[in-house]
């Protein structure tokens, strides 16, 4: 394989790795994450990464003799995306699942995100509609529904899940906004700076809830399994996962990146099979084959990618 082909393949492999990490995280959350309040869990998750991320960012800039400099509008954007991610996506997902179920979460909370992303991308002329997109996105969404429809607690919409389902759809909209917003930044600034700012803003938004809800007795009641879940989510699913995610995002664009979200039900099912010894049903096998076919169609699409522009560094913030 030539160097050029390898470089083109790397962001695709990056997204596969990301969704393997996030699939394992679903199992981790099943094992220990339910012990935590969503706001406390995510507040600690984001805050625990801040020292590591900023130390790495400092040495990244120092080794290259660079100065941390970011336009004010981009600084506000990345901080807003950090708050959106921490509060509007991660915490909202855990909260919504209290009123719905995991199957609806996979379809409505994540499955609709690529659909919304492609609608926005088409409206802003970032991509053009092709037959691969017209076939691939509905096929992927339908396949996810097949995956989660088998057995008890499968995908369904009714009065008993309505409140949670609305919140899950809101989460998909926020996810699409996050992808498109971050896609504007990853080609302009070094990734360590963006991740550090994003996580810091997310932590700042959630830490007040940590101080309000959690005390010594709260932490003492968390088992070793619960702490392990927090460590895995912080180190691997968050710090490593979002770093690879946003690096790959800058090379594929928001639309093609969002389509990889359909891999999560597959990687989550595989993680449950190997770690929790859960069974894999015929529904999951059929749906998984459909998702992989859809991924092939979407990623082979030759539609126009987003065009990045780099403005002059006026009204900048120096850190």
From TrEMBL:
Superkingdom: Bacteria
Matching Pfam families: EamA
Subcellular location: Cell membrane
Record keywords, A-Z: Cell membrane, Membrane, Transmembrane, Transmembrane helix
Membrane topology category: Multi-pass membrane protein
Main location (coarse class): membrane
Protein name as annotated: DMT family transporter
Organism: Paenibacillus hexagrammi
């Amino acid at each position: 394989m030539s160097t050029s082909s390898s470089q083109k393949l790397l962001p695709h492999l990056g997204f596969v790795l990301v969704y393997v990490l996030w699939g394992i995280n679903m199992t981790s959350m099943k094992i220990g994450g339910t012990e935590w309040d969503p706001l406390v869990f995510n507040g600690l998750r984001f805050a625990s990464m801040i020292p590591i991320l900023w130390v790495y960012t400092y040495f990244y800039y120092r080794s290259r003799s660079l100065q941390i400099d970011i336009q004010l509008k981009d600084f506000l954007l990345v901080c807003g995306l950090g708050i959106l991610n921490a509060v509007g996506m991660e915490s909202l997902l855990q909260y919504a699942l209290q009123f719905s179920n995991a199957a609806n979460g996979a379809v409505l909370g994540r499955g609709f995100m690529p659909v919304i992303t492609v609608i926005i991308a088409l409206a802003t002329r970032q991509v053009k509609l092709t037959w691969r997109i017209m076939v691939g996105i509905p096929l992927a969404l339908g396949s996810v529904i097949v995956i989660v429809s088998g057995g008890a607690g499968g995908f369904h919409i009714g009065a008993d899940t309505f409140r949670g389902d609305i919140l899950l759809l809101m989460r998909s909209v926020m996810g699409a906004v996050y992808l498109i917003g971050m896609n504007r930044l990853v080609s302009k600034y070094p990734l360590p700076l963006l991740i550090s700012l994003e996580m810091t803003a997310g932590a700042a938004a959630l830490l007040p809830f940590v101080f309000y809800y959690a005390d010594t007795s709260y932490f003492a009641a968390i088992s070793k399994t619960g702490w392990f879940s927090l460590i895995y989510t912080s180190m691997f699913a968050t710090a490593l996962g979002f770093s690879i995610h946003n690096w790959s995002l800058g090379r594929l664009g928001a639309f093609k990146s969002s389509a990889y979200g359909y891999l999560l039900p597959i990687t989550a099912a595989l993680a449950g099979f190997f770690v929790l010894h859960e069974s894999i049903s015929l529904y999951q096998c059929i749906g998984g084959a459909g998702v992989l076919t859809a991924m092939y169609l979407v990623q082979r699409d030759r539609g126009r990618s987003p065009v990045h522009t780099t403005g002059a560094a006026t009204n900048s913030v120096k850190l």
